[in-house]
Fold this sequence. Notes:
This protein is mainly alpha-helical. It is built from 6 helices and 2 strands, in the order ααααββαα. The protein has one domain: YheA-like fold (Up-down Bundle), CATH 1.20.1500. A two-stranded antiparallel ribbon has the order 1-2. β1 (61-63) and β2 (66-68) form a beta hairpin. The chain is flat and about 50 Å long.
Amino acid sequence: MKKIEHSAPVQKVGNAVKDLTETEEAAAIKKLDEEFAASPEGQALEKEINEFFGALDKHIQETENGIHIDNEAVEIIEDEADDIDAQFEKLEKTHWANDYENAFEDLGKT
């Protein structure tokens, strides 16, 4: 694995990604992320994501053979996942979807 990790093609791709992250377009995406996170829509999504991971933490128990999730917990976890999906569906109808689409399109042109 180390031979591949330090090979010229892998290094070239790594350097290209690093260069891409240092562009104005990448900075614009970071700024957009910060604006989204501070917005009511971003806060609502973060709340749903936190509730989902809270349900996972609460309802998944490790066993010596792996994990255990009881039937009731599966429904709770699915409900939380559905809430996240609903938030993303709402976001598709806001300016955020277009803002991100444009920002990533600009990044792809660099």
